[in-house]
Design goal:
The protein has about 100 residues and is an all-alpha fold. It has 6 helices and no strands.
Length: about 100
């Protein structure tokens, strides 16, 4: 029964994702702080979808993987740090 209920939630989840994307684009123009919050929420959702911990960003997960010597973490942190200096290290400090 639980799986059926989860399947029935799918249309609402799709609408929620579409709404989030629309609000993100609108907020970029009207309220950049809200846009950052929406981006953070999507980042955390993507991390959980990839079997990561709840309330953790992909950047923090990559930083932990890099610190543990995992290749994917090293590569992703190099990319993120090229976009924003010390991004992975800063992500560990903020959660």
């Amino acid at each position: 029964m639980k799986r059926v209920a989860l399947i029935l939630l799918l249309p609402l989840l799709i609408l929620g994702c579409a709404w989030s994307m629309w609000r993100y684009l609108w907020s970029v123009a009207t309220n950049p702080d809200k846009a950052w919050n929406i981006a953070l929420m999507i980042d955390q959702t993507a991390n959980v979808s990839a079997n990561g911990k709840v309330d953790t960003t992909i950047s923090a997960r990559a930083a932990r993987a890099r610190n543990a010597g995992r290749r994917w973490g090293c590569v992703l942190c190099r990319i993120l740090d090229a976009v924003q200096a010390h991004h992975c290290d800063d992500s560990l400090k903020s959660g």
